[in-house]
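Table S7 (text form). Paired inputs.
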Amino acid sequence: MSTTVPPFPDPGPGPVSLTERRKAETRMEIARAAARLFVGQGLRATRAEDIARAAGVAPRTFYRYFAAKEEAIAPLYALGAERWVRAVREAPAALSPPEALEHAVRHTLTPGAGVSAPSWEWARTLIRLAASSPALRKVWAEVCLATERGLVGALAARMSGGDDNVAARLAATSRLQFAAAVASAAVRAAAEYWASSSPQETRSPLDQALVNLEVLRGFAWEDGTREDGTGKDGTGEDSTGEDGTGHEG
């Protein structure tokens, strides 16, 4: 495998407390060391002890943070996902949920805006690595699932009008969870397609991600849940039946 790897991107805002910041820095140093070794000498040839040595930590420190060598690159997988969720949460308040998702994608997937050139190279390399190993695919899938959960919270917060109780109720609805799952899958599929494309392909996954997200423009974001958390008939269920007419069948 090639030993030429790009410089790592800046991880961005970190934890507030000194202890948490140090832990996050250690996790990221281990992740960077793991990625360099996976790219440079291959996943199979790399041991957890090799990663620990390259990161300048003891093996027991490595295992304090990660249960297996494949898990060590999870923080790098999570970087872009966390930025996207944060961008959804911080998008202009006037934007509708689908507009906020698209705004956030533009912010995080536009080269030179939310993502630097080194970040692009690492994103492509690491996502491609996930396609080559079942163990790494599992780590990538877990990060994508965490992203989905983060999107639920970010979207609920946007739709709640600043009311934490309303946000909690919205986050618990299957409708919002479904929308977040679709949004997460839309961007993941675009990223995976881009990562598997030719190295000469210079376009970002932005265009495909925006096309994929179009399915949510006509989505019924409101599910008829009242502010007291009950359905339209006040019983916790929608007053219409399964066929939408008020009858069971």
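Next pair, protein 2 of 2.
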Amino acid sequence: MGSDKRIRFAVIGAGLIGPRHAQTVMENPNTELVAIVDPLESNATLARDLDIAHYQSLHVPLAKQLASAGVHVLVEKPVSVDITSGKNLVRHVSATGVRALTVVSSGTLGTIVAVNGLWALRKPDEYFQHPAAWRQTEAGGVVLINMVHKVDLLRFLFGPITSVHAEKTLSQRGFEADEGAALTLRFRSGVVGSFVLADTVALSVPHMRIMCVNCQPRLDSAGTKEMLHISRGSEAMSITGMSHHMQLG
């Protein structure tokens, strides 16, 4: 792809994750970083394609404004802080050509019964201080910032989630943001699951255990990637490159 064909990006929000996106764009020969837009800077230039990594509560209005102007948008997680505004955004941009892929529906894993997971660490006090004090609000909780990555992985492996029950952990900071939860999940495929997460506790090794009738899956973590190993009798396979987000987010 020639330089005149490169996809042009602007990163909106130069907070904790924004610079990582900017670096990724700069390292890719097929993309060009044309601007970093942040409220602490006076000048900003919008590019044709933008990666929105701004305050969670601004994702929907910014994306709608840019989409209305004919600008392609890549919205950071979470898309919105509530279901209603998220659905409203989807209707607004009328995304097309999306292909849903699940490993369970293909039979790759055999017969899955259940999945269990854990994500836990302690976020430092400075994580919630200016200019990121918004993380103290309901938009900055561990479910929206961190668990969303696991939801992405769970949906990829087991298909759409049809029901969720969650109980919040005891508050240690006194902020509006949730600090942890215990969740039970049911997937359309029939798989059930449970997940516990918290950002106020000592670091624990994250894991995701898959319970399978006729296979032996194992999910290994290495750096920022996960590898799923599957064995059934004399057959074996691995699925690599799945994101593993143990960082603060």
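The CA atoms of residues 28 and 183 lie 38 Å apart.
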